[in-house]
Amino acid sequence: MGERNKLAVIGDPIGHSLSPLLHNTMAQELNLPYDYTARQVTVEQLADWVQTVRQEGWSGFNATMPHKLHLLDLVDEKTEEVVYFGAINTVRNDKGHLIGHNTDGDGFANMLAEHGLTFRNARVAVLGAGGAAGAIIRKAVRDGAAAVTVCNRTVEKARSLCREHPDVLHAAALDTPLPGDTDLLINTIPVGGNVGDDALANLRRDCAVIDILYAPPKTPLLLAAEERGMLAVNGLGMLIHQAILAFAFFTGASFDQPEMARILYKTTCNLTKSGVVSS
Predict the structure, then answer these.
(1) Are 134 and 104 in contact (CB under 8 A)?
(2) Average pLDDT of the chain to the nearest whole number
(3) What would the pLDDT profile of 239-265 be if each residue is shown by its tens digit?
(4) pTM for the complete prediction?
(5) Domain range 116-230, CATH architecture
(6) Which SS3 state, helix, strand or coil, does residue 118 take?
(7) Which residue in the list 6, 68, 95, 266 is annotated as catalytic?
(8) What is the arrangement of strands in the sheet containing 34-40, beginning at the earlier edge strand?
(9) Stretch(es) of the chain classified as CATH 3.40.50.10860
(10) Which CATH class is domain 5-103+237-273?
(11) SS3 of 120, please?
């Protein structure tokens, strides 16, 4: 058996990550010699991990929280996506030269497209202003959203994000009624935040509701949206599509990405019905 190329996802915590399943499935489907594992890496261990990747010749790695910002100072090169989104979730090792990349924004947009949705000319409301929200909000602006309302408990944090594009982005408190002409409502607040039907009170039935969580597959917000006859979408598609883009970046492989997404949905459907899993 030939030499295998090493890939990983790092995070803290990382125990319930679906990324090894996704990437190993892609490697198997494409008959490529890659092995992908999950590695528990704390912030204090991150610099040492990066050196290990260089010295041991790892092909690359993905990063989830809390590493997406810390990696900005540890890579040798940043793609345009990293410069724009201000975070790294994918690192490729080219003979010791580490290239940071970001697949979160395009992964989210590809998930939207599966459901016939787009940011183009859309009026968007985003609940939360953390790292995931930042990627989605910046992608919405880049893709031509008409307006984005950013709602957060700490309004100043929302205002800080909105200063980047004040012509499109608007900050609001989390309990502020959402604009009635909202086309896309996107929740990035953890399930413990108990975002539910109150957020939907002012919205039309044709507003699509997306929760970036995928375990449980139906959060209180999505259940409330379904009861109102609204399109309700969880975040599994975002995870799958960002993984597909990352695998292509790692390997340089060209493949039918929509077909690969179908394979990965089938592979993960049973695992996401119970328990909490992460990227």
Answers:
(1) no
(2) 93
(3) 999 999 999 999 999 999 999 999 999
(4) 0.93
(5) 3-Layer(aba) Sandwich (3.40)
(6) coil
(7) 68
(8) 34-40, 5-11, 60-63, 90-94, 97-101, 77-78
(9) 5-103+237-273
(10) alpha beta
(11) coil
